[in-house]
Amino acid sequence: RIDEATIRALPKAEVHVHLEGTFALADILFLAKENGEYLPGPAATLFDITTHDAFAAPAVSTGGGAGAGAAGLSGFLRFLDWQCGLVRTPAQAARVAYAFAARQSASGVRYSDVIVNPTHWNAWRGREIALMRALSAGFDEAEQDGLCAVGIAYSLLRSQSAASAVDAVATLASARPGHVVAISVDGDEKVTGRTGEKFHEAFRLARATGFRRTVHAGESSGPDGVWDALDLLFAERIDHGVRAVEDPALLARLAADGISLGVCPRSNLTLGIYRSWDEHPLPRLLAAGVEVTLNTDDPAPLGSCLEADWAVTAEQFGFDEATMIGFAARSIEASFADDDRKAALR
Ligand code: ADE
Ligand code: ZN
Protein backbone atom coordinates (compact mmCIF):
# COMPACT_ATOMS: atom_id res chain seq x y z
CA ARG A 1 0.00 0.00 0.00
CA ILE A 2 1.36 3.43 -0.99
CA ASP A 3 0.99 5.82 1.90
CA GLU A 4 -0.41 9.32 1.68
CA ALA A 5 2.86 10.97 2.75
CA THR A 6 4.61 9.43 -0.28
CA ILE A 7 1.84 10.72 -2.55
CA ARG A 8 1.95 14.19 -0.99
CA ALA A 9 5.67 14.40 -1.72
CA LEU A 10 5.28 13.75 -5.47
CA PRO A 11 5.52 16.97 -7.54
CA LYS A 12 2.17 17.12 -9.28
CA ALA A 13 -0.68 19.17 -10.66
CA GLU A 14 -4.42 18.80 -10.26
CA VAL A 15 -6.52 19.60 -13.31
CA HIS A 16 -10.09 18.60 -12.45
CA VAL A 17 -11.19 20.26 -9.23
CA HIS A 18 -14.03 22.74 -8.71
CA LEU A 19 -13.39 25.74 -6.46
CA GLU A 20 -17.01 25.32 -5.41
CA GLY A 21 -16.10 21.86 -4.08
CA THR A 22 -13.24 22.91 -1.82
CA PHE A 23 -14.80 25.08 0.91
CA ALA A 24 -13.91 23.71 4.33
CA LEU A 25 -16.65 23.38 6.93
CA ALA A 26 -15.21 26.21 9.05
CA ASP A 27 -15.05 28.51 6.00
CA ILE A 28 -18.75 27.88 5.25
CA LEU A 29 -19.70 28.52 8.89
CA PHE A 30 -17.73 31.78 8.98
CA LEU A 31 -19.28 32.94 5.69
CA ALA A 32 -22.77 32.12 6.94
CA LYS A 33 -22.18 34.06 10.15
CA GLU A 34 -20.70 37.05 8.32
CA ASN A 35 -23.85 37.16 6.22
CA GLY A 36 -26.33 36.49 9.04
CA GLU A 37 -27.45 33.28 7.33
CA TYR A 38 -28.39 29.94 8.85
CA LEU A 39 -27.31 26.47 7.82
CA PRO A 40 -30.14 24.25 6.57
CA GLY A 41 -29.46 21.79 9.40
CA PRO A 42 -26.88 20.56 11.91
CA ALA A 43 -23.29 20.94 10.79
CA ALA A 44 -21.57 17.97 12.39
CA THR A 45 -19.97 17.17 9.03
CA LEU A 46 -19.87 18.93 5.70
CA PHE A 47 -21.42 15.81 4.18
CA ASP A 48 -24.47 16.28 6.47
CA ILE A 49 -24.95 19.71 4.96
CA THR A 50 -24.49 18.71 1.32
CA THR A 51 -27.02 15.90 1.60
CA HIS A 52 -29.61 17.87 3.58
CA ASP A 53 -33.23 17.59 2.44
CA ALA A 54 -33.12 21.29 1.59
CA PHE A 55 -31.10 20.36 -1.52
CA ALA A 56 -33.11 17.31 -2.54
CA ALA A 57 -34.99 17.36 -5.82
CA PRO A 58 -38.31 19.23 -5.45
CA ALA A 59 -40.54 16.43 -6.74
CA VAL A 60 -39.25 13.01 -7.82
CA SER A 61 -35.81 11.82 -6.78
CA THR A 62 -33.18 11.95 -9.53
CA GLY A 63 -31.94 8.56 -8.42
CA GLY A 64 -28.39 9.50 -7.54
CA GLY A 65 -26.03 7.10 -5.84
CA ALA A 66 -26.52 5.91 -2.31
CA GLY A 67 -23.48 7.77 -1.02
CA ALA A 68 -24.71 11.13 -2.24
CA GLY A 69 -28.00 11.09 -0.37
CA ALA A 70 -31.29 11.05 -2.20
CA ALA A 71 -30.45 13.89 -4.55
CA GLY A 72 -27.31 12.66 -6.39
CA LEU A 73 -25.48 15.08 -8.68
CA SER A 74 -28.37 17.50 -9.17
CA GLY A 75 -28.95 17.87 -5.41
CA PHE A 76 -25.24 18.34 -5.00
CA LEU A 77 -25.31 21.17 -7.56
CA ARG A 78 -28.11 22.84 -5.56
CA PHE A 79 -25.92 22.67 -2.46
CA LEU A 80 -23.16 24.45 -4.43
CA ASP A 81 -25.59 27.26 -5.31
CA TRP A 82 -26.41 27.78 -1.65
CA GLN A 83 -22.80 27.60 -0.48
CA CYS A 84 -21.37 29.91 -3.16
CA GLY A 85 -24.24 32.33 -2.54
CA LEU A 86 -22.55 33.03 0.82
CA VAL A 87 -19.54 34.62 -0.94
CA ARG A 88 -20.61 38.24 -1.45
CA THR A 89 -17.64 40.60 -1.13
CA PRO A 90 -14.31 40.75 -3.02
CA ALA A 91 -12.50 40.07 0.26
CA GLN A 92 -14.56 36.91 0.85
CA ALA A 93 -13.89 35.72 -2.71
CA ALA A 94 -10.15 36.35 -2.32
CA ARG A 95 -10.21 34.44 0.95
CA VAL A 96 -11.77 31.30 -0.55
CA ALA A 97 -9.29 31.50 -3.45
CA TYR A 98 -6.37 31.75 -1.03
CA ALA A 99 -7.74 28.85 1.01
CA PHE A 100 -7.94 26.76 -2.16
CA ALA A 101 -4.26 27.32 -2.94
CA ALA A 102 -3.34 26.45 0.64
CA ARG A 103 -5.42 23.29 0.44
CA GLN A 104 -3.68 22.26 -2.80
CA SER A 105 -0.26 22.92 -1.27
CA ALA A 106 -1.17 20.73 1.70
CA SER A 107 -1.64 17.86 -0.78
CA GLY A 108 1.67 18.59 -2.51
CA VAL A 109 0.01 20.14 -5.57
CA ARG A 110 2.40 22.67 -7.13
CA TYR A 111 0.09 23.91 -9.90
CA SER A 112 -3.66 23.54 -10.27
CA ASP A 113 -6.20 24.36 -12.91
CA VAL A 114 -9.39 25.13 -10.99
CA ILE A 115 -12.90 25.14 -12.44
CA VAL A 116 -15.04 28.10 -11.38
CA ASN A 117 -18.65 28.22 -12.51
CA PRO A 118 -19.94 31.75 -11.78
CA THR A 119 -23.57 30.67 -12.14
CA HIS A 120 -23.29 29.09 -8.67
CA TRP A 121 -22.07 32.42 -7.19
CA ASN A 122 -25.41 34.15 -7.31
CA ALA A 123 -24.28 37.35 -5.56
CA TRP A 124 -22.09 38.05 -8.62
CA ARG A 125 -24.69 37.76 -11.39
CA GLY A 126 -23.78 40.30 -14.07
CA ARG A 127 -20.46 40.92 -12.28
CA GLU A 128 -18.64 37.74 -13.33
CA ILE A 129 -15.49 39.60 -14.37
CA ALA A 130 -15.36 41.27 -10.94
CA LEU A 131 -15.62 37.80 -9.38
CA MET A 132 -12.72 36.55 -11.53
CA ARG A 133 -10.63 39.56 -10.49
CA ALA A 134 -11.41 39.08 -6.80
CA LEU A 135 -10.50 35.39 -6.98
CA SER A 136 -7.34 36.23 -8.94
CA ALA A 137 -6.27 38.63 -6.19
CA GLY A 138 -6.50 35.73 -3.72
CA PHE A 139 -4.52 33.45 -6.06
CA ASP A 140 -1.85 36.16 -6.52
CA GLU A 141 -1.46 36.58 -2.78
CA ALA A 142 -1.25 32.80 -2.34
CA GLU A 143 1.45 32.47 -4.96
CA GLN A 144 3.42 35.33 -3.41
CA ASP A 145 3.26 33.41 -0.13
CA GLY A 146 4.76 30.35 -1.83
CA LEU A 147 1.52 28.38 -2.17
CA CYS A 148 0.25 26.44 -5.20
CA ALA A 149 -0.04 28.44 -8.45
CA VAL A 150 -3.49 28.44 -10.05
CA GLY A 151 -5.10 28.87 -13.47
CA ILE A 152 -8.88 29.37 -13.67
CA ALA A 153 -11.08 27.39 -16.05
CA TYR A 154 -14.18 29.61 -16.32
CA SER A 155 -17.08 27.23 -16.57
CA LEU A 156 -20.35 27.54 -18.41
CA LEU A 157 -23.32 25.73 -16.87
CA ARG A 158 -24.74 23.05 -19.12
CA SER A 159 -28.25 24.44 -18.72
CA GLN A 160 -27.46 28.07 -19.64
CA SER A 161 -28.41 29.47 -23.04
CA ALA A 162 -26.21 29.53 -26.17
CA ALA A 163 -26.42 33.33 -26.27
CA SER A 164 -25.36 33.78 -22.63
CA ALA A 165 -22.44 31.41 -23.23
CA VAL A 166 -21.19 33.39 -26.24
CA ASP A 167 -21.66 36.59 -24.28
CA ALA A 168 -19.61 35.21 -21.37
CA VAL A 169 -16.71 34.20 -23.62
CA ALA A 170 -16.77 37.49 -25.55
CA THR A 171 -16.68 39.42 -22.27
CA LEU A 172 -13.76 37.32 -21.01
CA ALA A 173 -11.91 37.77 -24.29
CA SER A 174 -12.01 41.53 -23.98
CA ALA A 175 -11.53 41.81 -20.18
CA ARG A 176 -8.88 39.04 -19.82
CA PRO A 177 -9.33 38.89 -16.05
CA GLY A 178 -6.33 37.70 -14.06
CA HIS A 179 -5.86 33.97 -13.88
CA VAL A 180 -8.50 32.82 -16.38
CA VAL A 181 -6.72 30.47 -18.83
CA ALA A 182 -9.52 28.23 -20.07
CA ILE A 183 -13.21 27.80 -20.77
CA SER A 184 -15.08 24.80 -19.40
CA VAL A 185 -18.60 23.43 -19.26
CA ASP A 186 -20.04 21.47 -16.34
CA GLY A 187 -23.37 20.55 -14.77
CA ASP A 188 -25.64 17.55 -15.02
CA GLU A 189 -25.70 15.93 -18.48
CA LYS A 190 -28.66 13.79 -17.49
CA VAL A 191 -30.88 16.84 -16.97
CA THR A 192 -30.03 18.75 -20.17
CA GLY A 193 -29.22 16.04 -22.71
CA ARG A 194 -26.62 16.75 -25.41
CA THR A 195 -25.31 20.32 -25.33
CA GLY A 196 -22.50 20.23 -27.90
CA GLU A 197 -24.42 22.12 -30.57
CA LYS A 198 -25.61 24.71 -28.07
CA PHE A 199 -22.08 25.63 -26.96
CA HIS A 200 -20.33 25.21 -30.32
CA GLU A 201 -20.20 28.93 -31.03
CA ALA A 202 -18.97 29.82 -27.52
CA PHE A 203 -16.14 27.30 -27.72
CA ARG A 204 -15.26 28.32 -31.28
CA LEU A 205 -14.86 31.86 -29.96
CA ALA A 206 -12.86 30.60 -26.98
CA ARG A 207 -10.43 28.83 -29.31
CA ALA A 208 -10.17 31.86 -31.60
CA THR A 209 -9.40 34.16 -28.67
CA GLY A 210 -6.71 31.96 -27.16
CA PHE A 211 -8.49 30.19 -24.30
CA ARG A 212 -7.74 26.54 -23.56
CA ARG A 213 -10.75 24.17 -23.50
CA THR A 214 -11.90 21.44 -21.13
CA VAL A 215 -15.35 19.86 -21.10
CA HIS A 216 -17.30 17.74 -18.60
CA ALA A 217 -18.62 14.76 -20.53
CA GLY A 218 -19.10 11.03 -20.15
CA GLU A 219 -19.99 11.25 -16.47
CA SER A 220 -23.78 11.34 -16.11
CA SER A 221 -24.20 10.62 -19.84
CA GLY A 222 -22.66 8.19 -22.31
CA PRO A 223 -20.01 8.47 -25.06
CA ASP A 224 -22.09 10.89 -27.21
CA GLY A 225 -21.19 13.81 -24.99
CA VAL A 226 -17.48 13.01 -25.33
CA TRP A 227 -17.70 12.88 -29.14
CA ASP A 228 -19.46 16.26 -29.07
CA ALA A 229 -16.78 17.70 -26.77
CA LEU A 230 -14.10 16.74 -29.32
CA ASP A 231 -15.92 17.53 -32.55
CA LEU A 232 -18.03 20.54 -31.58
CA LEU A 233 -16.26 22.09 -28.57
CA PHE A 234 -12.57 21.59 -29.55
CA ALA A 235 -11.88 20.07 -26.14
CA GLU A 236 -8.21 19.59 -25.28
CA ARG A 237 -9.14 17.64 -22.15
CA ILE A 238 -12.26 15.85 -20.98
CA ASP A 239 -13.39 16.12 -17.36
CA HIS A 240 -14.46 12.60 -16.27
CA GLY A 241 -14.92 10.95 -19.69
CA VAL A 242 -15.07 7.58 -17.98
CA ARG A 243 -18.06 6.43 -19.99
CA ALA A 244 -15.95 6.68 -23.16
CA VAL A 245 -15.09 3.10 -22.22
CA GLU A 246 -18.43 2.07 -23.76
CA ASP A 247 -17.24 3.02 -27.28
CA PRO A 248 -14.02 1.45 -28.68
CA ALA A 249 -13.84 3.93 -31.60
CA LEU A 250 -13.95 6.79 -29.13
CA LEU A 251 -11.18 5.27 -27.02
CA ALA A 252 -9.05 5.01 -30.17
CA ARG A 253 -9.73 8.65 -31.02
CA LEU A 254 -8.85 9.85 -27.49
CA ALA A 255 -5.63 7.83 -27.52
CA ALA A 256 -4.63 8.95 -31.04
CA ASP A 257 -5.24 12.64 -30.28
CA GLY A 258 -3.58 12.53 -26.85
CA ILE A 259 -6.70 13.89 -25.16
CA SER A 260 -6.41 13.28 -21.43
CA LEU A 261 -9.32 12.36 -19.23
CA GLY A 262 -9.51 14.11 -15.85
CA VAL A 263 -10.79 11.06 -14.00
CA CYS A 264 -12.12 11.36 -10.44
CA PRO A 265 -12.62 7.79 -9.22
CA ARG A 266 -13.79 8.57 -5.69
CA SER A 267 -16.24 11.24 -6.91
CA ASN A 268 -17.70 8.73 -9.37
CA LEU A 269 -18.34 6.28 -6.55
CA THR A 270 -19.65 8.81 -4.01
CA LEU A 271 -21.97 10.44 -6.55
CA GLY A 272 -23.18 7.05 -7.71
CA ILE A 273 -21.87 7.01 -11.31
CA TYR A 274 -20.49 3.52 -10.51
CA ARG A 275 -21.69 1.31 -7.69
CA SER A 276 -18.37 -0.33 -6.87
CA TRP A 277 -14.65 -0.08 -7.57
CA ASP A 278 -14.96 -3.29 -9.61
CA GLU A 279 -17.24 -1.47 -12.05
CA HIS A 280 -14.99 1.55 -12.42
CA PRO A 281 -13.41 1.62 -15.91
CA LEU A 282 -10.06 3.24 -15.01
CA PRO A 283 -7.99 0.08 -15.75
CA ARG A 284 -9.76 -0.38 -19.09
CA LEU A 285 -9.14 3.25 -20.08
CA LEU A 286 -5.43 2.82 -19.35
CA ALA A 287 -5.30 -0.50 -21.21
CA ALA A 288 -6.79 1.27 -24.26
CA GLY A 289 -3.85 3.69 -24.22
CA VAL A 290 -5.89 6.71 -23.13
CA GLU A 291 -4.07 9.39 -21.12
CA VAL A 292 -5.54 9.72 -17.65
CA THR A 293 -5.03 12.09 -14.73
CA LEU A 294 -6.31 11.39 -11.21
CA ASN A 295 -8.32 14.13 -9.53
CA THR A 296 -10.75 14.87 -6.70
CA ASP A 297 -13.56 16.86 -8.42
CA ASP A 298 -15.17 18.26 -5.22
CA PRO A 299 -12.99 17.04 -2.35
CA ALA A 300 -14.47 18.98 0.58
CA PRO A 301 -18.15 18.07 0.27
CA LEU A 302 -17.21 14.56 -0.88
CA GLY A 303 -15.19 14.21 2.32
CA SER A 304 -11.82 13.54 0.78
CA CYS A 305 -8.50 14.97 -0.40
CA LEU A 306 -6.14 14.29 -3.28
CA GLU A 307 -3.65 12.09 -1.43
CA ALA A 308 -6.44 9.96 0.05
CA ASP A 309 -8.09 9.58 -3.36
CA TRP A 310 -4.78 8.58 -4.99
CA ALA A 311 -4.03 6.12 -2.17
CA VAL A 312 -7.39 4.38 -2.35
CA THR A 313 -7.22 4.28 -6.16
CA ALA A 314 -3.75 2.69 -6.02
CA GLU A 315 -4.95 0.19 -3.46
CA GLN A 316 -8.14 -0.75 -5.32
CA PHE A 317 -6.42 -1.22 -8.68
CA GLY A 318 -3.10 -2.52 -7.41
CA PHE A 319 -1.05 0.37 -8.85
CA ASP A 320 2.59 0.41 -7.73
CA GLU A 321 4.67 3.46 -6.85
CA ALA A 322 6.08 3.78 -10.37
CA THR A 323 2.54 3.95 -11.74
CA MET A 324 1.65 6.72 -9.27
CA ILE A 325 4.82 8.63 -10.22
CA GLY A 326 3.59 8.32 -13.81
CA PHE A 327 0.23 9.84 -12.86
CA ALA A 328 2.04 12.72 -11.16
CA ALA A 329 4.17 13.40 -14.26
CA ARG A 330 1.14 13.20 -16.55
CA SER A 331 -0.80 15.67 -14.40
CA ILE A 332 1.85 18.32 -15.04
CA GLU A 333 1.89 17.71 -18.80
CA ALA A 334 -1.93 17.69 -19.02
CA SER A 335 -2.26 20.98 -17.12
CA PHE A 336 -2.81 24.36 -18.71
CA ALA A 337 0.32 25.75 -16.99
CA ASP A 338 2.59 27.59 -19.41
CA ASP A 339 5.76 25.94 -20.72
CA ASP A 340 8.09 27.69 -18.29
CA ARG A 341 6.09 26.54 -15.30
CA LYS A 342 5.87 22.98 -16.64
CA ALA A 343 9.63 22.93 -17.16
CA ALA A 344 10.14 24.10 -13.56
CA LEU A 345 7.81 21.40 -12.23
CA ARG A 346 9.30 18.46 -14.16
N1 ADE B 1 -19.94 20.71 -10.77
C1 ADE B 1 -19.29 20.39 -9.64
N2 ADE B 1 -19.05 19.06 -9.59
C2 ADE B 1 -19.56 18.53 -10.73
C3 ADE B 1 -19.64 17.23 -11.29
N3 ADE B 1 -19.12 16.16 -10.64
N4 ADE B 1 -20.26 17.05 -12.46
C4 ADE B 1 -20.79 18.12 -13.09
N5 ADE B 1 -20.74 19.36 -12.64
C5 ADE B 1 -20.14 19.57 -11.47
ZN1 ZN C 1 -16.16 18.00 -12.21
TrEMBL record:
It is an enzyme of class 3 (hydrolase). InterPro entries: A_deaminase_dom (IPR001365), Ado/ade_deaminase (IPR006330), Metal_Hydrolase (IPR032466). Residues 11-346 form the Adenosine deaminase domain. Gene3D superfamilies: Metal-dependent hydrolases. Its EC number is 3.5.4.4. Transmembrane segments: none annotated. SUPFAM superfamilies: Metallo-dependent hydrolases. GO terms for molecular function: hydrolase activity. The keyword Ligase does not apply. It comes from the Bacteria. Its cofactor is Zn(2+). The keyword Transport does not apply. Keywords: Hydrolase, Metal-binding, Zinc. Belongs to the metallo-dependent hydrolases superfamily. Adenosine and AMP deaminases family. This is Adenosine deaminase. It comes from Microbacterium trichothecenolyticum.
